[in-house]
Amino acid sequence: MVPELLTPEHKESRITIHADILNNIDTAPGLLDTVTLKGTRFESVEAVKAKATGVLNQLTEADFQHHFQQWKSRMERFCFRLGHSVMDTFAKLQPARVFSRAQVFRWFKAFSEGRESIEGEPRSEKPLSSRNDENVDRIRDLLRSDHWLTTRITGE
């Protein structure tokens, strides 16, 4: 799965690189002796491909987006700890087109203030929408009682 934030050229180049690695994996003797996934050693390329395909098929889009956001935050923290300026970091990460300027500045500020965690801040438990059965019934009753009501009056 490739993030949507990449340009088509970036996506194509990554797919080409990964395909090239998979096609040439048999020519690297001893490579499979060192390949482990979660502590499991694999005897053949097919076993690695089967396991990787199974893991990718189980990954939901929400999980992917969550882990992708964590990766972006780790990259920003890494650059901060190396002593790069915020503009240097933004310039280095910009070709990947996964970071907005505002996001880089926001994370750099948080890291410079001593933040260590890359987890997002807790969000309010406020509902995303005020549309519920009670409100729908109230609006319906208002409109039935006076169909000349404007949307401004209805919203109040």
Automatic annotation (TrEMBL):
InterPro entries: Transposase-MT_Hybrid. This is Uncharacterized protein. PANTHER family: MARINER MOS1 TRANSPOSASE-LIKE PROTEIN.
